UniProtKB/TrEMBL annotation:
SUPFAM superfamilies with a match to the protein in the record: Terpenoid synthases
Enzyme type, top EC level: transferase
UniProt superkingdom: Eukaryota
Protein name according to UniProt: Squalene synthase
Species assigned in the record: Paxillus rubicundulus Ve08.2h10
Pathways involved: Terpene metabolism; lanosterol biosynthesis; lanosterol from farnesyl diphosphate: step 1/3
Keywords: Membrane, Transferase, Transmembrane, Transmembrane helix
Regions crossing the membrane: 305-325, 444-467
Record field: catalytic activity: 2 (2E,6E)-farnesyl diphosphate + NADH + H(+) = squalene + 2 diphosphate + NAD(+); 2 (2E,6E)-farnesyl diphosphate + NADPH + H(+) = squalene + 2 diphosphate + NADP(+)
Amino acid sequence: MGKITSMLGLLLTHPAEFRTLVQFYLFHEQKRDITAQQEHPTSGWDRPTMRCCWDFLDMTSRSFSAVIKELDGDLARTICIYYLVLRGLDTIEDDMTIPDEIKQPLLRSFHDKTVTPGWSFTDSGPNEKDRQLLVEYSAVVGEVNLLAPEYKEIILNICAKMEVGMADYAHKAATAGLVYLETVAEYDLYCHYVAGLVGEGLTRIWSASGKEAPWLCEELELANSMGLLLQKTNIIRDFREDVEERRFFWPKEIWAKYGFEEMKDLYEKGDVEHATWIQSGMILDALRHACDALDYLRLLKTQSVFVFCAVPVCMAMATLSLCFMNPEMFRRNIKIRKAEAAKLIMQATNTREVALIFRDYARKIHNKAKPQDPNFLRVSVMCCKIEQWYEQNYPSFVIVGDNGVTYDPSDKRTAVVRIEEKRAMQNNLGDSSRSEPEMFPWELATYVVGAFVLVFGLSAGVVYTILKVYGDE
């Protein structure tokens, strides 16, 4: 009843969004039903432990759950387990009620505990939202041990790397009190540990599955940028919630300006103008990963893998656009509207469409930029880089439609293409259509004799003229 009421309200207040949601619910059906009998061998739905894992996936992240379930074959089950393992690790790191002397060995040995039959953790804080995942973690452990060896090795390797970074930051926070990240380099390293490594693991799983090229697992820099774009977007959006829970992720190199001494000053002092300048600096830092994300997506060939990777980064660009120069972000958590999310899910089906989404949001960010902001020029350059990436790879004057490829007649580049096409057509006609008829030997001799007579005559005329002129003198 509540959903019907909200939809009716949306029809009256935002009819365009209502139309988008209706289209989404009617035409964008989930392609795969993991509960179906024929899917049991790959989804594991016939096992109670795996059903428990699917339930936890729905509980911890509905947005990721939908795209994970549409992955082909056993990839869906593998990524589900991978997500829950890292979610469990992250839950322990975020739990401020666990003493450091308990948290440290727990974090640093989490990859071992993940394969220890029957292991679970019941000492999380009562208000920790994902507490139940750790209470019933033995179900995850059982499923990890059933994974193919190549998948299991990757998941445990990424977990072992991630837990070291998390443990180091958690220990620093516990022993030094309020801890801020000082530099952007520190910020990048933290985001690498908590998100860049996730991208690395996913990329290695794509290659190991055979769904993507074997060499894709070597593109770790691009995979890291994918993770950093998503993580930095979440950190920007969740500013108010993190500060209130005493989690400080914004680097002081960016925010410790204009008289701000603590992060809470950004909303307590009421200096909205300078706060939004700092906000633009954080968003500028996140945008530098956008072109790498597009380069990564261009390498993917499997549709379900592409959609899994493309939808979150499109949501991230929409969120950055929403947060840019928006003081409301300092007062509460803000999110893109459901209709906008639905539109992005329906549109993010290929690299060209995703690049178009990136370009459109980059334009929105640029339109909101203010010249008095010290970051104005750098924001403009970064937005232009996204625009340039789109134009280089998918020129806007090229129109792809049902009737094939056409060109925008109003664009000057179309005239250049027409000239090049005409020139190529002439070159392709072949020498036979343009060459002179083959000459016989006597014809060649005639041309040679004629040329000789012509040259001799001209030479004689020149000599005669010279003698005539100088002879008269």
